[in-house]
Amino acid sequence: MLLNCFFGKILKMKQPGFTTTSLNVPYPKPDPHNALHMPLYEAVAFEFDSAEQIEANFKGEYIAHVYSRTSSPTVEYFELKLKALTGSHGVIALSSGMAAISNTILALTKAGDNIISGSRLFGHTYALFNQTLAEFGLECRFSELRNEKDIEKLIDKNTRAIYFETVTNPQLDIADIEMLARIAQKHDILLIADSTITPPNVFRAADFGVNIEVISTTKHISGGATSFGGAIIDHGNFDWTLNPNLGSYTEKFGKNALIAKIRKNIYRNTGGSMSPQTARNMSQGLDMLELRVEKCYQNCMVLGSYLHSNPKVTVVNYPGLEGDPGFDAAKKYFKGVPGTIISFDLESKEACYSFMNKLKVVRRATNLGDNKTLIIHPHSTIYAEFPLEERAAANIRDTMMRLSVGIENVDDLIADIEQATKE
Ligand SMILES: *Cc1c(COP(=O)(O)O)cnc(C)c1O
């Protein structure tokens, strides 16, 4: 509301672009000094003018920050920015991507319920579903999420959601999001996307029928791997009366039922809040997100073509490149920008290790969405705990490396890769 009014007055033009929006989201309250950066409020608790005002606050009649584990001004500002940038109904910021995922599932399910999830998942999400939450009686039904009929066979009256990652990592398979949305709508269940790999400047989740997004803001959004964070984004396009576990929250809060249950119950009671300092990093990260992702994408395109031309490289995967199996889906869903990871193969595991050890500009580390270009050998690291046949089933080859492409000058990256592939 405030945002529309602001842009209506100042810009008198069509909906402003991503970065313009990010730089101009109004503060929740005017700053007494007209600071051009949202101040960092490190306070734990907030004072009230009177006993009556505190009572009104606890009754929900007077909205104000009380104690920073539940909400605080700098974190609220980051949430408002992400809400404006995603055009969504509600946003909660949390201490990590895993906190965003676990809070969401805890709010939506109870023992005896089930969710359907893609089987190629971020490792700790897989462990959360398969171990941690399984021990509390939640069943996760894993599926490749490729065949509509097979997915529908997994749905029963206790199914609460379909959960998927927009692009799997490191395989770089792109989900058939339109098919998943069709199934979810037909069966009145929620569609949850982990869109970490495809940030909100390239992926408009609600346009494709996604109800809830969970994001590890640690990655692209933090602005170069500065801090840990996560976000839950509610697109306001699901009828919460269809989920029996939101009961009294639906009656009291209507469209805000999920956000209210998470904020007033799961988030508060499990202590997964984002710190104010982190929220400040994240807000700044959003201002430069579009710029950074565009540069990473340009680097991916140049590096991808270069890797195709390098005779030592046997396989190259980047769905932004024409000829890649994911190219059309990347165009349809992500404006042609399917994240900033390239995976590629050399002839053997030994060749990969020798190559990685010679790199000077590219860093050996497990992260993605950093400003720095990072490389890892997934088969021997991220997937090391998986039995060999499971690694094979997930298409994790011991000849494959994952390159998370940063913002360096691309000529330096090419020169580094070139020298490391020489004998
Ligand atoms: C990193 C990551 C997570 C977990 O996020 P953290 O911030 O590390 O807790 C979840 N999903 C995907 C796709 C990720 O890349």
UniProtKB/TrEMBL annotation:
Where does the secretion signal sit in this chain?
none
What UniProt keywords apply to this chain's record, in alphabetical order?
Answer: Pyridoxal phosphate, Transferase
Query: Which coenzyme or cofactor does it need?
Result: pyridoxal 5'-phosphate
GO BP terms, alphabetized: cysteine biosynthetic process from serine; L-homocysteine biosynthetic process; transsulfuration
Extract one GO molecular function annotation from the record. O-acetylhomoserine aminocarboxypropyltransferase activity
Q: What Pfam families does this protein map onto?
A: Cys_Met_Meta_PP
> SUPFAM superfamilies this protein is in?
PLP-dependent transferases (SSF53383)
For this protein, the record's InterPro entries field holds: Cys/Met-Metab_PyrdxlP-dep_enz, OAc-hSer/O-AcSer_sulfhydrylase, PyrdxlP-dep_Trfase, PyrdxlP-dep_Trfase_major, PyrdxlP-dep_Trfase_small
Q: Which residues carry this modification: N6-(pyridoxal phosphate)lysine?
A: K219
Classify the source by domain of life.
Bacteria
* Cellular component aspect of the GO annotation: cytoplasm
- Protein family per UniProt: Belongs to the trans-sulfuration enzymes family.
Protein's UniProt name: O-acetylhomoserine aminocarboxypropyltransferase/cysteine synthase
What does the organism's lineage look like at the top?
A: Bacteria, Pseudomonadati, Bacteroidota, Bacteroidia, Marinilabiliales
